[in-house]
Design goal:
The chain is an alpha/beta fold. The protein contains 14 helices and 14 strands. The chain has two domains: 6-12 and 263-383, Aspartate Aminotransferase, domain 1 (Alpha-Beta Complex); 17-261, 3-Layer(aba) Sandwich (Aspartate Aminotransferase, domain 2). The strands form four sheets. The chain has a seven-stranded mixed sheet, sandwiched between helices. Strand 8, helix 7 and strand 9 form a beta-alpha-beta unit. The chain is globular and about 65 Å long.
Length: 384
């Protein structure tokens, strides 16, 4: 008998049964009253999740696509932006900006570290705030398991003309993010992580300041043109302007209802509890987190591979023998870390199952520890 694979990954993540049920239904047409109900549900609930008064745009897109959409709508060729990178996806934001001929000032940190607000402040002061048009930054970097303090960064920009553009692809719906209250100008995210839906949808929300920047942008765009989507949301144009990912949007609408039924603060609390339990389990095994504990993500935990152990074999055993998928490191961290996701539709029993298998896989490769010690640590933390 083959069991369902448990995805303890940074994304895509496991889907709730009611979301899976939507995915098996026959397709409907997107210019119907029935689909209009889905659009209205998404429009209202996305605002709540983003914590914004403004409309949230939905694209048939990966997360990378909506990152690109932010660049082409908010800036013009030659604009200077500050890219703050703490890992692979921070680097990607800079690469997208460079592809569209922005003048990118790079602030890069060693993988495993969080950005320092003081460093960002120094760059803005030295460059002259009028010369920096925007800051590109990742809220939660899944390649390193590190979370940035976006609220503190927003304090630097919210009373200026500088646009704060946040990649919240892995964080939105799992970590606290208050778009309007904190003064964030653009938040982009995807469906396949904390939002508990299949891959295929990208979302973007703008502040009033960012919408004003759209009017000045001279970057070429067609499919990504935010103004087209805004007209649809305002009722002055077709909504959506192009054929949407109908079934995925229906699934996302159901997933958002589940999040709001649980209560967004409770969802944040659940992610934190699972993260702290994961950290406790890792530390009980004598393993070391990649990030400092204060910056370690509540979405995914990155762990340094133990000396002398081929971590790729441990990951392979988990996947093939125990039907549990965790991930290794990317690029410069390949072979040096492993990552356990605890994002979206994940529970305490899922974590216990994962650590049980992890212990057996580590033991198989010769790593020495007290059997069952991580299960005790995880369960004790989950009781809190």
């Amino acid at each position: 008998m083959e069991n369902e694979k448990l995805l303890m990954t940074p994304g895509p993540t496991m889907l709730p049964p009611s979301v899976l049920e939507v995915m098996r239904r026959q397709i409907i047409h997107h210019r119907t009253k029935e689909f209009e109900e889905t659009l209205n549900s998404l429009a209202n609930n996305l605002k709540t999740i983003f914590q914004t008064k403004n409309s949230v745009m939905t694209f048939a897109s990966s997360g990378t696509g909506v990152m690109e959409s932010a660049i082409v709508n908010l800036f013009s060729p030659g604009d200077k932006v500050l890219s703050v990178s703490i890992g692979n996806f921070g680097d990607r934001f800079a690469q997208i900006a460079e592809a569209f001929q922005l003048d990118v000032v790079k602030l890069k940190y060693e993988w495993g570290q969080a950005a320092k607000v003081s460093d960002i402040k120094d760059i803005l002061q030295k460059a002259g705030s009028e010369n920096i048009k925007g800051i590109l930054i990742t809220h939660n970097e899944t390649s390193t398991g590190v979370t940035n303090d976006i609220k503190a960064v927003a304090e630097l920009t919210k009373n200026t003309d500088i646009l704060l553009v946040v990649d919240a692809i892995s964080s939105l719906g799992g970590l606290e993010l208050k778009m309007d209250e904190w003064g964030i100008d653009c938040v982009v995210t995807g469906s396949q992580k904390a939002l508990m839906a299949p891959p295929g949808l990208g979302f973007s929300a703008l502040s009033d300041k960012a919408w004003a920047a759209c009017d000045k942008s001279t970057m070429p765009k067609f499919y990504w043109d935010y103004k087209k989507y805004k007209k649809g949301l305002d009722g002055t144009g077709e909504n959506p302007p192009f054929t949407p990912a109908i079934t995925t949007m229906q699934a996302q609408a159901v997933a958002l209802k589940l999040i709001l039924e649980e209560g967004i603060e409770n969802v944040y609390g659940r992610h934190k509890k699972l993260a702290l339990a994961t950290q406790a389990g890792i530390q009980s095994l004598g393993l070391e987190l990649l990030a400092n504990q204060e910056n370690s993500s509540y979405i995914i935990t990155a762990v340094k591979a133990p000396n002398g152990i081929d971590i790729s074999k441990v990951i392979k055993t988990l996947n093939q023998k125990f039907n549990i998928m965790i991930t290794g490191g990317q690029k410069e961290l390949k072979g040096k870390i492993f990552r356990i996701g605890h994002c979206g539709f994940v529970s305490g029993p899922d974590l216990i199952k994962t650590f049980s298998a992890l212990e057996m896989a580590l033991s198989q490769e010769g790593y020495i520890f007290e059997s069952g010690i991580s299960l005790k640590a995880v369960q004790n933390q989950l009781k809190n």
